[in-house]
Amino acid sequence: MDRLLARRFGSVRARAAIGAALATLAVFAAGGYLVRGEVARDLERSDLEAVREDANLLAVRVSRESHALDAGTSYAIVGADGHVWFRNGMFSGNGPLGMAPLPPAPADHRDYDVRTVRLAFPAWASGPDPYYSGLSTTPRRLAVAVCVTEELPAGSVTAFLTPAGAAAPDQPPLPAQRFTVYVVRSPQAADEAVASVTRTAGWMLPAAVLFVAVVAWLVAGRALRPVEAMRARMASITGSGAVRRIPVPPAGDELTDLATTINATLDRLQSALAEQRRFVSDASHELRTPLTTLRSALEIALAHPDGRDWPAVVSAALADTGRLQRLTDDLLLLARLDHGSRPPVTDLASVVAERVAERPPTDGPTITVSTLETGAVPVPGTELDLSRIVDNLLDNAVRHARALVDVGLTVDGAAAVLTVSDDGPGIPVADRERVFDRFVRLDEARDREQGGTGLGLAIVRGIAVRLGGTAGVTDTATVTVRLPVDRTALDRAAP
């Protein structure tokens, strides 16, 4: 069960859905926080502009000794000596700003100039008035508008000393002074608006996260459907029979590229498999022929032992055995070429000179070296690899030459160029690539008679390619091998 859950939630589809959900959660949470803050700031700016207008209007009314603002507006009127002559609403004794300090405006505060101060909210010492139960009681500082009246003459009795509808109080005349008015608006409406935004975001956030996760799950499943088809098709491939290609999605996206690459890989694998089967078939045929000849000769000799030239029989058997050994060695070398490691660096010039000098004298064609670099020619490869290239090229040239075989070694830029030519009939243009295939003989009868295995040039190209070079027929009877020169070793060898 745990493994099933781990596989289900560890799938690409699940990871895509979870990632999309987390991204949505982060974006919506950050966006909701920013929107909530912006709404709160907009409402605060709107309230501040309103209370600044109210403060200026109240100061004008006080100066004209008219009745103050409506009873629904929270304001306080403070004399020059700091005495609070009137307070209502949030400034009342049991209001949230009832205990807030309300000092008179400083002397530099110009008449009817509106300033803004911030008072601690709430400022009560005990429980709030039930009228303000809808307010947020989170400690904060509330913006309050402050305005100053012009100096009123001594003995003035203003209407603000008496709430609307009440009898005029019996009090002594007031000295000449300016009055400071404080005006504030209840933050209840703003708090409710912010709370509404918070509640809306509270249910929209999980809904949006769930919606995006489901959509991501469905879209990922649809997008990965071709991948599942590819997986199923690849799982059905076996080592026998034709390899079916996977379907290529028509969308032209990354999955199309993946399917195309997989099909190209399958093409190469099928070609390699066909080449391997052809190689095994050819090798079996090549091994069967000398074995059959050897067996037949020995069986005939044993059936009629009298009068047999036994030294000749043994010599023929040894010749067939030698051909089998050479063929087996070539097959083993070709197998090793498919699993090569990083080769060392060897001087090709010395290998060419040594292999030509060590050729046994025969009555066949003459081997000459027309061009040979005087200095070292360091190339990748072991001495055995390079010797095999030179020997196979010489064997092939001697087998087809009439009287002369020419060897050349030059350095062309970053490549060492080894050429072996003969004065034989040459290789037709149509066969210049085919001669490098395994077990290919253009002159089947003569090659078998002279001991050729049909693997010489295939080994030459295999070694050259493994060393980072090339091998090909560049002229009618010239085989050219190009190997990369190791510049580091060449610079060290330079005088």
UniProtKB/TrEMBL annotation:
GO cellular component, one term: plasma membrane
The keyword Disulfide bond belongs to this UniProt entry's keyword annotation: no
Keywords (A to Z) from UniProt: Kinase, Membrane, Phosphoprotein, Transferase, Transmembrane, Transmembrane helix, Two-component regulatory system
GO molecular function, one term: phosphorelay sensor kinase activity
EC number(s) on file: 2.7.13.3
Domain HAMP: 221-274
Cellular localisation: Cell membrane
InterPro entries the UniProt entry points to: HAMP_dom, HATPase_C_sf, HATPase_dom, His_kinase_dom, HisK_dim/P_dom, HisK_dim/P_sf, Sig_transdc_His_kin-like_C, TCS_sensor_his_kinase
Transmembrane portions of the chain: 203-224
Enzyme class, UniProt record, top EC level: transferase
Histidine kinase domain span: 282-487
Database matches in PROSITE patterns: HAMP, HIS_KIN
Pfam name, any one: HATPase_c
Superkingdom to which the source organism belongs: Bacteria
Catalytic activity annotation: ATP + protein L-histidine = ADP + protein N-phospho-L-histidine
Protein name (record): histidine kinase
